[in-house]
Structure to design on (168 residues):
């Protein structure tokens, strides 16, 4: 039996990147931040498990009501590791289409050229119901603006990536 999950779909990953970057201030973020944001876009029920910074968007109480999927997931850190190759391929495809800035991508910054998004895709993004949820607002308004490196950085708070050897 074949089971589809959007986490492993290259085109869905590219769609998620464009959606997230469309709602982040400045339409750009660090590469590792984007990977973490995408992870929580696909698995929003895991937001409950992170140490949240204080914010007015969501609290642990509101995140408790995000339904758990029926499937069992491996360790989140391992899952994040497995998604890295897919994230790279999706970003490279968007760079090749001119939707992401190539020079910044080579410097581990991902920046969206929103004016280059095809109109049909722009309509799909605008109709995306996830954009109206509390968890999505938490991702793009709070987590996207939080520092990524060091103690209490996004890598530390989520435990999805190693942070102890960060240089800054």
């Amino acid at each position: 039996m074949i089971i589809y999950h959007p986490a492993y779909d290259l085109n869905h990953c590219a769609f998620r990147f464009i959606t997230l970057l469309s709602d982040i201030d400045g339409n750009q973020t660090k590469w590792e931040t984007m990977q973490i944001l995408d992870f929580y876009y696909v698995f929003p029920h895991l937001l409950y498990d992170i140490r949240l910074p204080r914010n007015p968007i969501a609290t642990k109480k509101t995140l408790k009501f995000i339904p758990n999927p029926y499937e069992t997931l491996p360790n989140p850190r391992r899952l994040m590791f497995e998604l890295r190759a897919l994230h790279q391929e999706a970003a490279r495809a968007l760079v090749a289409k001119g939707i992401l800035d190539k020079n910044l991508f080579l410097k581990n910054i991902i920046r969206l050229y929103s004016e280059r998004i095809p109109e049909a895709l722009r309509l799909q993004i605008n109709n995306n119901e996830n954009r109206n949820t509390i968890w999505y607002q938490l991702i793009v308004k709070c987590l996207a603006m939080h520092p990524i490196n060091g103690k209490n950085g996004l890598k530390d708070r989520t435990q999805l990536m190693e942070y102890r050897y960060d240089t800054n």
